[in-house]
Q: What sequence folds into this?
């Protein structure tokens, strides 16, 4: 697995939905690649921060946020 290929599977890996054979290859690459470990850590922190930023529907949306971005976040939250 290349670094580029690893990025295609990050979401499935974090959600625990990566099939076992692919997960094994993914984790072998992580063990050998410090850059991808850093990238995975950064990705996880970004996902956690995004979820925490909009933890409830009652949170006020800051002024200046484009409506399309608000809609995209709301749709992503519905799918999660």
A:
């Amino acid at each position: 697995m290349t670094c580029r290929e690893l990025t295609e599977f990050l979401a499935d890996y974090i959600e625990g939905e990566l099939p076992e054979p692919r997960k094994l290859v993914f984790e072998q690459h992580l063990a050998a690649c410090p850059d991808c470990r850093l990238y995975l850590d950064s990705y996880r922190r970004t996902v956690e921060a995004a979820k925490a930023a909009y933890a409830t529907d009652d949170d006020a949306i800051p002024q200046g946020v484009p409506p399309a971005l608000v809609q995209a976040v709301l749709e992503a939250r519905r799918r999660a």
